[in-house]
Structures are given as structure tokens and as C-alpha cells.
Amino acid sequence: MTALLDAGRPDTTGDGKAAVPRTRHRGTLRDRFPGLALPALIWYAVFMIGPVVAMFVIAFLSWPGMLTTPTPAGLDNFARVFSDETFWTATANSAIQIVVGLPIMIGLAFLLAFYVVQKPRGHRVLRYLLFIPALISAPATAMVFYAMLNPDGLVNGFLRPLGLEGNEWLADPTTALGAIIAVELWSGIGYSAVLIASRLDGVETEIVQAARLDGANDWRLAWRMYWPIARDFIGVVAMLQFLSMLFNSAQTVLLLTQGGPENATTTLAYLIYRKAFVETDLGYSQAVGVVLFVIGLLGMWAIRRTLRATH
Amino acid sequence: MAQRAAVARRLPLRDRIGSITSGTLAWIYAALLVIPFYYFIVSSFKTNEEIFESPLAWPTTFDLSNFTTAIQQADLGLAVANSALTTVAALVLTLLLALPASFALARARGRAGKIVESVFALGFLIPSFAALFPTFLLAAALGLFHTRTFVVFLLPATALPLSIVILTSFMRTIPRELEEAASMDGASSLQVLRQVYLPICVPGIATVLLLNFLSFWNAYLYPLILIGPDTAQRTIQVALPTLKVDAGTDYGVLMAGTLFTLLPVYLVYTVLQRQMQRALLSGAVKG
């Protein structure tokens, strides 16, 4: 996203006038188009932009199965999507996931980052550990949590000696979505904290010491000094995690619950997957894709507004 | 520490809670990271009964039979080979596409260069996950459905925006005079790239390689959908979840398989810890 900002800045290296006549021809050609970027651009257009454009087209087609011929459907798919109860359940689940999960993730990650940059005893170990979730693939994480959350697993093994009732965490409609969010938090907090810490490391120690001398304690230091300084960067981290929750969490759902029990963990991203690859209702699936794309843009805009730099 | 604790004692309750919270939170989270790790590592040496009886107990024997069962049952050896092949081929292709592109963008002075650069910079907005089905159609249209080849083609495309943004910012730091001196000597663009830019960009290339190694090795949904369940072609990430059976999963075997999947990543992380951390940081900062 820094690149996004950079791309618009005025060119300060332009020195076209200084070019000697002999090289001018090559110079102007290069000015017109960076030819060596062409292969990458074409590759990107074919494999990434193409499918997204196709998504927008398929959303307006009636295509009830791979082997049938698609026919134009106008807005029918969207009408079907918006009148489908499952879609609204999925929307509610995604909303809960984001509204509950994201602030907790970012808030805790910030506090962790703040603690790590104070260099307390053991901060090196802590930094090493915080990277762990960023290295593990979605299937490996899911398998570990599957083993921990099963009725005979580690979580219930902890609770039973305490006299608490165990639970089938992933099979109980009241806890399944919470379990998915917990997996997301487990893997997201560490990486976000490391990212935020990399920004907080840049805060000058003089300012911090001066504030300490003025009697500022940790709590005030964290929220009144570090938070405003890192605010716009935390916004960037929040956007990354927002997109990851909105889209990639479908992998966790697929691996752990397949959207069940009774749609309790069907999120919008998982609904796209299920409609496309399980029920092969392709128009419906891609219509939800378009909706999710719009939600993604709106969410990023909202995060940017909430966490933009205040100074 | 003691002094700070003393100061903390005199503060109002809300502030005192504040100073204790972040430290406590940090170590609770650290414990939550370590316990699952410990649990699944010891579990991979146990039977189901032992896991259920005493989940955190040290294994009685370091019997490797769970590992051999996991490797046989899910064909993990072949899956690792497939993952390695796919990852390496995709990494090479990524560099072949991203290096010339970054070189061109770093030197471009016109408006076109800026437009191309913003196309890549906006890449993170592409909801490639939502477009999984059209990607699947593309594979079918190219006649590459259910092959590793298509994933080798696709993965670099997912990695191009970030790779190009990182490499371009690296190449921008190289003074133009160096390149002009080489051009005067009659070197072609590609020679300038190879002889002047590449040696200076080694740290940037290392960052891009490590970052993409992680995301290619760990890729799950694309290989699942595009390569499919064929054991001869499937990657390790697709093979691993097949050890989870709806009725009667052998958790020891499942955890042994998981450990086996993570080994290559941990090997690389242990050897290249600093570089890897830097790569992961620049991955988001630049993205």
C-alpha cells in the first residue's frame, strides 16, 4: 500500500533534457512503454485479471451446471441471492467474524507489539514465537486445531479436570463459528503484532523517555503516544487482515466444518466455494463473488477512514 | 523492573491494570502458540488412547510408526516431491517475469510506466479467491486441468504484484549513472540487467524468493481445485487433510503427517531466520 501512495508521486528523476542525441531514440521509446514489463503484465492479465472479469460476466449468466450451456440471466442471479435465506445467514456470519474478530485481533496485536518494543526480559523469544503462525499453512493449522477441538482433544482435556463440561466445539452450532474465529485469531495476532512492532520500533526513544519522566505510564504511553504515531500503518495491517478474514478464512471453514453445522459457519467466501464446486450453481456463486468484491472495497474504505493518520 | 513495579503500585487502579495487561497478554498468547505445538509434536508419537488419556504427557516411546503410517497412507513422500517441484518451478518463473518487469519499471520515465506500476500495486485488491471458478475454467480451456503445470503457471501470477513492488523499489536505489556507463560501453538492456542490477539486487531477490516460497509451499485452495485428488500430482497441503477421516481419525498419524508437512518450512526458517523475518515484514509493508 505504500507502493500505492508512491505510484502517484511526482517524478523527481526525470532528466530527459540531459540525454545526448545519440541515445534519444532509445530514450523516447523507453519513455513510451517499459517493454520488459510486458511479459509480466500479460501473464498477470491472463491469470489474475481475466478470471475476475469473467466473474463479473458469469454473475449475469444462468449456468446451472458445468455441462449445460450458459444463457444470459440479467439480474436474476442477484435476485435469487438476495432472496435466499442462506445468503443472509452467510452475510451475518461474515459480519460477526469481521466485527468481532478484527478489532480483537488488531487491539491485541497492538498491545503485544507495544510490549515487545519495550524490550522486556525474553522479548527475543517472544519475537521468534510470534512468527510461528505466519509459517504454517492453512491445512496444518486446521489439522492441529481439529485435534485440539475434537471431543477427546486438548481443550476438553483441560476443562474436564476443572469440573467443566466439555463440548463438541466444531459440531455445536453455538460454538462452531467462535471456534473458526479463534483459529483466525490464533494465526493472525502474531503476524499483525510483528508487523506493528516493526513500525513501533521506529519511535524515537527520547520522546518515550521524556513522556515517562512526565509520569506517563504504560497504558497512556501505548494509547496516547504509540497508537497515534502508528495509526495509519495499523490501518494498513487491519486492511490486510480484513481481506484475509473475508476471503481466505474459507479455507479454514472448508477444512474444519464445511460450513456446518446447519450453516453456522457458512461465510460468504465459503458460500462462493460451495455454490461453485459442490452445488455447481455457477451464476449464483459468482453473483456472491461480485457482492463480496464490493463488500471488500467498502470495508477497506471504512478501515481507511477510521484509522487514517490524524496528524 | 522492580522500580517500575513500585511506580505502578502508586498509580490508580485503571493504570495499574494497563501496565500489567500487555505483559500478561503477551505471555498468555506465547503460551497459546507453544502449547498447540508441544501438543501436536508429542501426539505424533502416541496412540489415540494415549492422546485422549493424557494429552500433554511426554510420549513413552519415540516410535516412528505414526510417521511411516502417515507417509504410506497419504502418499506423503510423493506429495512432498510434487510440492517441491511445483514450488521451485513457480519460483523460477516468478523471477523470470518479475525481474525484467521491475527493471523496466524502475527505469521508466514516462506515464506508461507509472500506469503499469499502479496496476501491480493495486493487485492486492483482486479477490482471486472469489474468482476461483473462472480460474478453473481457464485451466480447462488451456487443456491443463488436473495438472501441476497449470498451478506452476498460476502461482507466479498471484505473486507478481508484491514481487514487482519489492524488486522495483530495490532497483530504484541503483544510481542511473551506473547503467548509463554500461550503456555507453555498448551493453544491451538485458546485459545491463544481468551485470549491473542483479548483483546489487540480491537481498531483494532473496526476500522475494523466501516470501514466495512460503506462499507457494503453503498454497492450499488452488492446488486442491486445480490439481485435484490424483495422488500422482497432488501437493503436500492437499494430501495432509486426507488423513482426517470422518469416522475414527487416528490423531497420532494425523499429527505426524502435520509435523512432516511443516519440516521443510522450519528447516528454512531455522537456517534463514533473519532473512525470513525481514521478508515477512517487507511482504506487508510494501504490499
Automatic annotation (TrEMBL), chain B:
Localization in the cell: Cell membrane
InterPro entries found in the cross-reference section: MetI-like, MetI-like_sf
CDD domains registered for this protein in UniProt: TM_PBP2
Transmembrane segments annotated in the record for this chain: 20-41, 84-106, 118-144, 150-175, 196-217, 251-272
Sequence ranges assigned to domain ABC transmembrane type-1 in this UniProt record: 80-272
Protein name: Carbohydrate ABC transporter permease
Keywords per UniProt: Cell membrane, Membrane, Transmembrane, Transmembrane helix, Transport
Membrane topology of the entry: Multi-pass membrane protein
Organism of provenance: Promicromonospora kroppenstedtii
PANTHER family hit by this protein: ABC TRANSPORTER PERMEASE PROTEIN MG189-RELATED (PTHR43744:SF12), ABC TRANSPORTER PERMEASE PROTEIN MG189-RELATED-RELATED (PTHR43744)
Family label: Belongs to the binding-protein-dependent transport system permease family.
PROSITE patterns: ABC_TM1
Predominant place of localization: membrane
